[in-house]
Each structure stands twice: as C-alpha cells, then as structure tokens.
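Thread: quick sanity check before group meeting

JM: Hey all, I'm pulling together slides for Thursday and realized we never actually wrote out the predicted structure for the chain we discussed last week. Dropping the sequence here so it's in one place. If anyone has concerns about the input, flag it before I start.
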Amino acid sequence: MILPWTDHPREYFVITAPTRRRQALVLALAVLGATSLAACTAATGSDGDRPRTPAAPADPASRPDLRHFYGQKLDWRPCGDHRCASLTVPRDYSRPGDGKTFVLPVAKAVTAAPDKRVGSLVLNPGGPGERGVRLIQDGVADDLGRGVRERFDIVSFDPRGVGGSKPALTCTTADRAKPAEAEEAPSDAAAAPLHPRTASERADALASARATAADCRAASGPLLPHVGTDDAARDLDVLRAALGERRLTYVGWSYGTSLGTSYAEQFPRRVRAMVLDGAVDPSLDWRQRMLSQSTGFRKAVEEYAATCADAVGDACPGATPEEIRTLIDRLLERTAREPLPVDDAPYGLDAPALVSALSLSMYTPEAQWKALSEALVAADGGDGTKLAALAAGEEGPQDGEADASEGSGEADATEGPADETPRDDVPEDNSEAALIAVNCLDVPHPRDAQAYWDALSPAAKAAGVYGTTGVTNELVCKDLPAGPQRPHRVQAAGVPPVLVVGTAGDPATPYGEAVSLARQFPDGMLLTYDAPGHTGYGRSTCVDKKVEEYLVSLTKVRPGTTC
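JM (edit): ok, ran it. Output follows.
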C-alpha cells in the first residue's frame, strides 16, 4: 500500500534485477486483486466451505501445546522514540512443539495520554511483505489523529518471513548474493514483450518465471509452506494475547485486509473493532483477481490523462487528454522496441518497467502525478531515468533503523532454509520474496502453462498491456507451493460490525471489492471515499473522522456514508 506519510509504494508491483532478456515486472500475484471492476464477477466456489487444517480449533489458546506461545510476556525495550520487543510463534501450527519457530519483531508507540488509554491498536501496512516495525519507526502514530493517538498504544509487527522476522524469506540464492562485477547490458538484449504471442516469447516468459521460482525454492524452500495469511492471522492472535488484550482492535490496509479477514474468520469473538481499508475479496480466484486489478490500473491511467490538467496544471505532458494518451502509447511502442537509457544503470527502461512506473504512480495522485508527468516528458525526450526511479519506488536507505528483535529476551530460533541454518544474506528489504511466496501460497494457481496463455487475450481486451503483463507475472506461482485455501465467501459468524473503507477510484483494490467484502461480513459497514488513489484512511479528514469514531467509541457508520 501507499500511505500519505510514505513516499515509496511497494505493493503489487516490484522490479526484479535485470536478466539478459528482460527487467521483470512482478505484478500483484495473490492480492492482485481486487474484485471485479464493479463487483459483478462471479466467484468460483464462493459459497463452499472454507478448508481448514485439523490444527485450527475454535480456541487455540486452550491447546496445551500452544500455551507456551500464548503465555508470552513481551519484554519492551527502548528503540529510538518507540519501544520494541519480539514475539515467538510456531512455524507450523500443526506441530508447535517441534522447536521450529518464527521470531517476529514488534514495535509500539505508547499512547500520548495514558489516563485515556483504551488498549492497543494493531496495524498492518499491506504488501504482503511490508514491514510493520518500519511503519511505527516512520512515525505513523503521529499521523493517526489525536483521538486515536491518545487512546491507543499503536502497535505493528513484521509478519512471519518478512523484514526482521527470524528466519526471513529470500529468493536470492547464496551464489547470487555474492557481489558481482558490474555488467553491461548485452548488445543483443531485447525488450520483453508486453503480450507474448509467439512460442519463443512464451518460452522466454515461462523460463524467467521458472528461474524465479527455482531461486525461491533453493533459498527459502522449508519456509515457503509456512508464510500464508491464515498462519499470520494466528500469529496476530498470539500477539493480541501477549499485548494483554482480551479482544483485538485492528486496522489493515490493502493486503492487511486479507490478514484482518482471516483473523475475523478464525477468531470472530476476539474482535473488538476492525477497519479494512482497500479491500481484498477472498471469493475471487487468481484470474478474476488479476483481471480486476489490471483493469483498475488501466482505468486509473486513463483518469490521469483525463484530469491531469486539473491536478498538476502546466506540468502535464500534454495540453489535452488525447495528447497525454498518445504520448503514453508512443512510449509503450518505443520501449517495446528498445529500452530507454537510464543514468548510472547497465540496463534501460523497457516496456514492462514503463507499465510499472505508470501503475505505481496511481496510488496517491495528489503526491505522485506531478512527478509522473515530469518523468513522461523526460522519457519522450529519450531519457528513462525518472521513470525508472518511479518504477523502482524511489526507496532510499533507512539509516539508523533499530532492530526490534535485539535484546528482547526471546529465544532466537532462527532455523534457516534448506540446511536449517540461519541465512546471513537475506536482504534488509525482502518484500519481493514475501510478495511472491505469500501470494502464491494464498491463492491456488494452475500448474499448466496453457491456462495462463488462455487468459492473455481476455486480459488484453479488458485491460490492455496492464492485463497481459498481469497474466505473465502470475506465471511464477505455477512452480511454487500452494496452500489449502480456496476462493470463498467470508465465514465469520459472531464477529462484531467490521468497517470496510472503499475508495471509488482505487486502482489496486477496486471499489467493487470493498462493496462485496462489506456485504459478506455479518453487519458489515461500508464507508466510501469518492476519490482516485489507493485506500482512504490517512488521506481524507472525513474518512479519518469516521474511522476514529469507530475505533474509539465503536460508533457505527450508516449505510451509504460517503466522504
């Protein structure tokens, strides 16, 4: 997700290291999707029972073999302006006594008014793969509003396998982690096609996906089956208990809505208040998710062209919407033939990276459209540097970041990948590996490549290049572990009213999905934010007020409420 207090969207679109043939675009895999464009896509198997593992009783805290985990007391220690601890959870909830665990960093900002404290508010920033600890360290608490800040300790954590989790996921094998000499792009390198049509182009796309999957299995094989959202939701309940809370108060953005939904299904009577902003509908299959989000990004880029003048004025790359559309089409054709040069890089900006730059720039129009406009003008002049920066998320180093897992007093159970020893070469930002692993595990994908090729033409018709790149970037899941989950409608009998926030012009989680999810929850409430961009809480004073009233006082939102 992209919050208004951050400047580098990392969810859904991630650029991988350039290969000989392409600079791959990893597109929205499992959370890829939002619902159908108008919540009108029928979900296969949506009314079926949700598969459950045998090790998921109604009250896991009562299981003797989980009592040790539920009985933890967090050892809070100072870390900068906040407090940090770590939480130990079983790696496999069906075998919690086998000694294999994840140790998860946790951070909190203590309430500004202890005498008014209601409890702890747990946040998840999305992803999958975003670091909750970094969210706290970046000052999210100070942006949540006085009412929330005074009444709650603001808490977040790095989910299993993510960021400072021990062990952590990586798709970088040991040999590839070693520094290599700078290599120039080969003279015969060709731009990756946005719509692979020929047998050769499809073979290349399949080989690239297989190579990525093979790297993930080689580097993180034993972890891959254990990083799914249902297990992360069980970790969230262990965290609730360790925080001393009888019931959970929670806000999840984007993928965080999947985590919240899973928690509500497994622990409906442990929810106090839950805000799900930028909703992911669990009733959609992989193809529906891919198609709906791809269509959302296409429509968002069209909206950019149509309203650029009102948003950024003279900075627009064209005098009319048609001029802007023509420029974008021209750049797509140009980069499909030959990548644009990028300063200080051995490779250029190819067509998939251009699609990534365009799509990422749709998250917060008020903060991103001017930079996109300037980058498009530069690219039309032959320089892809600014667009490449947008495609990469412009994420800089996080100097001085504290490690929330240090000095926590918890056991350091860091069994690693294939040889069960800790990996010391996991990158600090492993969001791409987590994105791939969690997405592929959460949503079943076909094992036959033909299913992806069959999806190309419908995707092209509905979403153009955003659809075809979406299909090809789902290919990595063909060769990675899948969990037992199936598309299903929410089953959370007994959960109190859940507040779903939907943004009308959301490109990453289209509005129809919020409508659908709110209807699936018993007494679900929908708050509509009539604006472009991804998510609403933190971007609108009207939305902020309604969310705050709900979190603090459990005030219900009336049907039809729009900001």
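AS: nice. The CA atoms of residues 314 and 437 lie 43 Å apart. DSSP finds 17 helices and eleven strands in the chain.
JM: adding both to the slides.
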